[in-house]
Each structure stands twice: as structure tokens, then as C-alpha cells.
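Z., the sequence and structure:
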Amino acid sequence: MVFSSSVSVITPAIRARMPYSWRPGCPVGLGDLRYLTVSYRGFDRAVHRGELVVSAGQTDAVLAAMRSLFYAGFPVRQMRLVDVYHADDNASIAADNTSAFNCREVAGRPGVWSQHSYGVAIDVNPLENPYVAADGTVSPPAGRAYVDRSRQAPGMIHTSDSVVDAFAGSAGSGAATGPRRRTTSTSPPPGADPAGG
């Protein structure tokens, strides 16, 4: 099995598939984003084709990370544009959807753009790698089964595993293993929440 990928500017056809995740007033323009398709290994061990929208400046780093995950055999549940879920982050993570760009504020922090709004964050298997808020709230709720990070289960991210290594091996990147399931490819831009969101 061979990894394959493609990169495109946001064409009118792709823009038409992004009616919810991008709108005028977002902190990045469409010209600053790229549409990627990548091979990934599913939980069924078959090869699937996924799609992500990321910052144009992070294209090479994201492709390198995804290539590393593919060859490491790391499973991904699915990888669809967040617009499939009307850019509803809760719906996307509940479906265990790996996604990147989504022009939205950090939950509970009006006026603070999420790193996803810049296309510099990727939620990888958010069910297996849930967000745990300071008050103990788990998002998505079904992710509670994966809060114990000593657990070893397919799709979970652990310190120094293939996901962390893949993103750390990409220029200027790092991966967070908890409590948030986000992997971040750059330092947060001005106005973005440095903790992720």
C-alpha cells in the first residue's frame, strides 16, 4: 500500500463544499488555505481517502505528518470536511471525525479565534482523544471511556507515539496528547487561543 496525496487551492467547487466553515470575517482568507486529500488507514485496516483544509503555509508539514501516520499504520476513523457536520464542532467530534480548518471561536471565549480558524490545528480521532475541560466535562461525552491515558486502544494518541513523532518531525510542529486531542502545526497566530480550542 502506497500513500498518496494531492494539494489544491480553494477552487469555486471546493468553496461550494465549505458553506459553513468559512465566511467573510474569518481571520484567514480562502487564498491562505489549501485543500488536501490524503491516504489514511482506517480502523478496518483498509486504505481510505480523506480530506483536510489547512493553512497554505502548513501544507508540506501536514502532508509529511499524514504520510508518517499512514506508514506507521496509525488508524483514523474518518477524515471529512467539517462542513459535512455544518461546521458544528460537537457533531464532528462526536462522529470521531479527524478535521482541521473551521472558522470558529474558542468555546466559552467570545472573540477569541480557535487555532482551527487559521488552519493550523488538526483534531485526530477526537473520540479516542477527547477534550477534558477544567471542570471535568468530557467532549465528546462518549470520549469518557478514553480519558484514562494509560489505556492502550487503537486510535489513541500517547506521548512519544507515532502521532506525536509525526507532527514533531514536521517543521515547527508539535502534538498535544491531552487533555485536548488537537495536534498543532504552528505557533498560534495573533488573536488565537494558544491552548488550542
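The first helix runs from residue 12 to 16. The longest strand covers residues 33-41.

Let me know what you think.
H.
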